[in-house]
Predict the 3D structure of the following.
Amino acid sequence: MLTNTSNDVAQGQEFVGHGKPLFLRRIRNTGRSVLPVRDCIRLRFAQFCRHAMGGHRVIAFENVGFNYGGGELLSDVSLRLAPGSFHFLTGPSGAGKSTFLKLAYAELRPTAGRVSIFDRDARMMTRDDVALSRRRIGVVHQDCQFLDHLPLATNVALPLTVASRTGDAQDLTALLDWVGLGKLADALPPQLSGGERQRAALARAIIMSPDVILADEPTGNLDWEMSLRLLTLLVELNRMGKTILIATHDMNLIRQAKSQLAARVLRIQNRRVQLAGADL
Ligand SMILES: Nc1ncnc2c1ncn2[C@@H]1O[C@H](COP(=O)(O)OP(=O)(O)OP(=O)(O)O)[C@@H](O)[C@H]1O
Ligand SMILES: [Mg+2]
């Protein structure tokens, strides 16, 4: 049970205690870069610095409760996401998975308890603070929406535009290639398949080099082959040091991920968020 404990649900154990600089191990482990090189180096260095400082939680829930005005939807939820951890969030439809994610990126504020995002109390965050934190948290929404009149590449680069940051065209091309959409850079969103839209949503979520990726049913409407492809991208991002949380119903996807890395599974049940056992 996690509901009444402040223990870490993930210790980021794969990042601790190996005695070698993290970015060196990363380079050896992954063997190749899948994101633009500059981005990889920046990410690895940032991750290394956090590790060298002893690491910290990126998102923490302390006795959190939430309701939309009616009955309590989430109750007494306490957990921490450690840097570099990989979690799934499961639970029946309507259990509150999307709500949980929205609390984690301060789209919603808790009605009880405290949510900390990069050690800031979400209740104290101004709109500007929230906007800044979003640069460190990439979100793949359940209904990945795009501006239909703008080409895919422009849609993916939109977070950079909104943040008044100029993107490197080569980086954007490399990112689109990485998610397998290089040839569709000029396509309009309505021309994309479901799998292409999901991969575009992932590209848009990571274009700001976030530390954390929250993905809400990213494989919801995809066939198995495309789900695996998307999972591979998320696993690869995790190996580069990103903290990943995926809300999903797909038990096969969870089993597949667990065969590749130390993913943990959180389950929403009876308004509580519990760490699921190994019985998946
Ligand atoms: N803005 C809102 N106002 C009122 N109730 C809401 C709102 N958003 C969600 N809910 C309700 O809160 C409950 C949890 O919704 P949520 O979307 O978090 O569930 P979920 O676990 O993500 O479901 P699914 O698996 O179908 O995506 C549902 O009963 C839903 O109707
Ligand atoms: Mg949902």
User: Anything to note?
Assistant: The CA atoms of residues 192 and 268 lie 33 Å apart. The longest helix spans residues 37-52. Residues 68, 73, 91, 93-99, 142 surround adenosine-5'-triphosphate (ligand 1) (CB under 6 Å). Residues 1-34, 49-54 have pLDDT under 50 and may be disordered.
